[in-house]
Amino acid sequence: MVSTLPDQSTTETNSGQAIPFGQSLTSWFIEPQLNPASCVPEETVGAYPTLKAYGAQPLRQQKIDKTYFKMDTDERVARIRDLRAQLGERMVVLGHHYQRDDVIQFADFRGDSYKLSQQAATRRDAEVILFCGVHFMAETADILSGAEQKVILPNLEAGCSMADMANIRDVESCWSALGSLGIDGVVPVTYMNSTAALKAFCGRNGGIVCTSSNASRVFDWSFERGERILFFPDEHLGRNTGNVKGIPAERMIVWDPFLPMGGNSEEAIKNAQLILWKGYCSVHARFTTEQIAQARTAFPDLQVIVHPECRAEVVNASDFNGSTERIIDVITGAPEGTSWAVGTEINLVNRLQKQMPGKTIFCLDPVICPCSTMYRVHPAYLLWTMEHLVAGDIVNQITVDGDTRNDAMVALNRMLAVP
């Protein structure tokens, strides 16, 4: 089990019991009330054994009455809209691009994880931020929001398997191991898709946060201040960014926390410019060069755009790569009649196709395999949450303690200052 530290955040359940921050929310559950999708990425790419090895622990979401799920869809939508109206300006609803349509329809703002947190920060008048996303996103929203605002996650089982692949204990052990070798000039960089504890670690140790859209500029910032980058938790975003910056393959190494010195020789570590944590996104790990080849055969004029969380060979075989927001912008700006194969989460891809029927837009992966943890946010939980809020009860509040918040904010502010 992941060890906990006194300066870390907690998750407040509706019973008021604080769950230690280290017990991360994952995509594997104990008797989940909501059945998983027909395809679960973590199962298909073999992530569950890795998650268990990393010490990730599933949390229970309190079971809600079955009537919330059995309710007629129109009735449930009407009740949510009525409650939303009652809450008015007191609540702002954030919806991540990967959410299903029957959830994101209620969002006041749509975006990727960081954009949503920024948007929430503009609504200081809202007492409650209802974040239809996953746990690390709600943490970031709590860090960036006002002290009196409350951030709510509709279903506590909505975690992130990639964020769970790097915990503070293992990262600190890696940091100590590098120090024991006399290696200095290391700048820690954490991807936005990480826990508040890792953002705080970067803040305390001269490091920074990055997003998939600014990773290249953050690498420039880091190399101006050190000789090496320790990048976590996504090996693939780190490698793809290293390739963009021209770092030779032999100077990029992978750190496996279950092996001595991360599975590397002392010579390899001292030669490394980029130390990549062994972690990945299960959704984007499903995309392959074979899928790209098949799509190009079916559509000779096809353009392929993928997220940089994909493996390097997939990114290299594509025409474009970029963040969720960039994928949307590129396809939106493309001429009518163009064809696009997209390597990212299926809910976003399907939404783009509906919004732009004059273009051919489809997911590279022929199997419908949504983000399993985003899938946990069901309209039934929105209704349940809003009923409690109208009654004056706060449920599923995500909080980050003051010390962690302050240190994480240092790393976030460094990112915001990057040109």
Question: Can you describe what's shown?
Answer:
- The protein has helices at about 40-45, 45-55, 65-70, 75-85, 100-105, 115-120, 135-145, 170-180, 195-205, 215-225, 235-245, 265-270, 290-300, 310-315, 325-335, 345-355, 380-390, 400-415, and strands spanning about 10, 20, 90-95, 110, 130, 150, 185-190, 210, 230, 250-255, 275, 305, 320, 340-345, 360-365, 395-400.
- It is α/β, with parallel strands linked by helices.
- Helix 5 (about 100-105) links the parallel strand 3 (about 90-95) and strand 4.
- Helix 4 packs parallel to helix 17 (about 380-390) and helix 6 runs parallel beside helix 7.
- The chain starts with 9 loop residues before the first strand and ends with a helix.
Structure summary:
This protein has 419 residues and is α/β, with parallel strands linked by helices. It has 18 helices and 16 strands.
Separation of the first and last Cα atoms: 40 Å
Structural class: alpha/beta
- Work out the helicity level: 25-40%
The beta-strand count equals 16
Q: Segments where pLDDT lies below 50 for 5+ residues?
A: 1-31
The coarse silhouette is globular
**Numbering strands along the chain, what is their spatial order in the largest sheet?**
2-1-16-6-5-3-4
The number of helical segments is 18
Main beta sheet: 7 strands, mixed
Computed over alpha carbons, the radius of gyration is 21 Å
**Beta-strand content:** 15-25%
Q: What would the average pLDDT be, to the nearest integer?
A: 88
